[in-house]
Specification:
- The chain is of the alpha/beta class.
- It has 4 domains: 6-63, Alpha-Beta Plaits (2-Layer Sandwich), CATH 3.30.70; 69-185, Rossmann fold (3-Layer(aba) Sandwich), CATH 3.40.50; 189-243, Alpha-Beta Plaits, CATH 3.30.70.20; 248-390, Rossmann fold (3-Layer(aba) Sandwich), CATH 3.40.50.
- The protein is built from 12 helices and 18 strands.
- The protein has helices at residues 21-25, 52-56, 69-83, 99-106, 127-133, 156-173, 201-205, 231-235, 248-267, 312-321, 342-358, 377-390, and strands at residues 6-7, 9-11, 31-33, 40-42, 62-64, 87-92, 114-119, 140-146, 180-185, 189-191, 211-214, 217-221, 241-243, 274-279, 299-304, 325-330, 365-369, 374-375.
- Strands 7-6-8-9 form a 4-stranded parallel β-sheet, with helices on both faces. Strands 15-14-16-17 form a 4-stranded parallel β-sheet, sandwiched between helices. A two-stranded antiparallel sheet has the order 1-18.
- β3 (31-33) and β4 (40-42) form a beta hairpin.
- α10 runs parallel beside α11 (342-358).
- The two termini are 35 Å apart.
- Residues 1-5 and 401-409 have low confidence and may be disordered.
Length: 409
């Protein structure tokens, strides 16, 4: 990740058989075929790095930086040996259940322990990967894919369903019955009606019209439309709506815990300390390797489901709990996997900047757009922000977060 300008996907024309499978299966029309020469080319600006083309190529002509099969197998082998695990849980990044929810899914499955593998889309995993896991002592494979209508990569879940069905039939023919199980999961907003005051802000703000207003009653979340973007949770003044897996209080506790560690490091002379909120689609490898040391332990990464899930109040909390600066790394408008409501996130950021300016903290926050397509871009922007914050005077604020009017954020 140290290089700048390296593209994360490459098609080797020397191996390409011109079968056009990749172009026919790409959900974003990012792969084209020259009508005269038959040459296949990837339009990198359209590519969203779902990896579906990589897993579909029959001659391995496509190389991809993130989550290739060999790397995943090595990671699985190492983790399974360390934990004595006999079960693989393969999950979609955008709708990966929490640990407790995985335990519920695995209830009744005979397994010593499991290894979770989270990939951008399970549609990128070829059937051969499933077969090879059996050589590592894996006896149970649980694939948790998105519901098809909520797939962040359009057709990824449908494609995965087809591949897993083929893999399951092959395994059964070979005598491996019930080795492969498929579950679906979709992260939703959860609603505590006892806290609701009927302001209907959630109804107004939801970009997917997934919250229905009720006459003389609290609104109702339409699970068939909810995509789990988190926009409703940000505007609820009484925390009556929370995004599953990213509940406000749980995130606040993590920030407080990380902030305490940051203060200890600052006392030892480590500075500056940065908290980076990263949209799970703008950065891949660092988010999936939380123990990776970033710039001598000066940076803590926290995942958010989408730009619309960035709570302005959490930014202010981070500065009060001990961090010297806060960076938000998000997708561009064109790359957003939850396309509707990008303007909601921009309005929230505008309010946050005004509040920070009033507190004379405007230089402590920045928002960058990034994409996995540009290998090294995330690291470059992070390094630039660290240098900027390092040039400022040390920040020392009260650990008690200030109160911000809920109507503003």
């Amino acid at each position: 990740m140290s290089e700048v300008g390296i593209v994360g996907i490459n098609l080797d024309d020397n191996y390409c058989g011109r079968c056009s499978i990749c172009s026919s299966i790409c959900p974003y029309d990012a792969i084209g075929v020259d009508a005269e020469t038959g040459e296949v080319r990837i339009d990198i600006e359209k590519c969203q790095f779902c990896g579906i083309c990589y897993s579909a190529c029959p001659v391995n002509a496509i190389d991809i930086v993130y989550y290739d099969s060999d790397t995943l197998l090595k990671k699985l082998e190492k983790a399974a040996a360390k934990k004595g695990a006999d079960t693989l849980v393969l999950m979609c990044r955008g709708n990966s259940p929490s640990t407790c929810q995985i335990d519920e899914i695995l209830e009744g499955v005979c397994c010593k322990s499991y290894v979770p593998l989270r990939v951008p889309c399970v549609g990128r995993v070829p059937p051969e990967f499933i077969f090879k896991t059996l050589t590592l002592g894996i006896n149970n494979i649980i694939a948790i894919r998105c519901e098809e209508e909520f797939c962040r990569f359009k057709d990824g879940s449908r494609i995965n369903n087809q591949r897993l069905s083929i893999a399951k039939r092959v395994l059964e023919e070979l005598g491996y019955d019930d080795v492969l199980r498929v579950n679906t999961y979709a992260r939703k907003a959860v609603y505590d009606t006892d806290k609701c005051v009927g302001c209907d802000k959630c109804v107004f703000i939801c970009p997917y019209e997934a919250i229905d207003v009720q006459s003389l009653a609290t609104p109702v979340i339409n699970a068939d439309k909810c995509v789990g973007c988190g926009a409703c949770a940000l505007v609820c003044p009484h925390l009556a709506i929370q995004l599953e897996g990213f509940e406000y209080e749980a995130v606040a506790r993590r920030i407080q815990r990380y902030g305490a560690a940051a203060r200890e490091l600052k006392a030892k002379g480590v500075s500056p300390l940065i908290l980076a909120f990263c949209c799970q689609w703008s950065e891949f490898s660092a988010l999936d390797q939380p123990k990776t040391r970033l710039f001598d332990n000066k940076v803590v990464l926290m995942e958010i489901p989408c730009f619309k899930g960035l709570d302005p109040y959490h930014v202010i909390e981070a500065l009060h709990y001990g961090f010297d600066g806060v960076l938000a790394v998000v997708c561009s408008d064109e790359d957003c996997k939850l396309e509707k409501g990008y303007d909601v996130a921009q309005r929230n950021t505008a309010v946050l900047r005004r509040v920070l300016k009033n507190l004379n903290l405007q230089d402590r926050f920045e928002l960058y757009t990034a994409s996995p397509r540009n290998v090294g871009d995330f690291t470059r922007q992070l390094r630039s922000f660290i240098e900027r914050i390092g040039s400022l005077s040390p920040l020392s604020l009260s650990a008690r977060p200030i109160t911000v009017d809920a109507d503003d954020v």
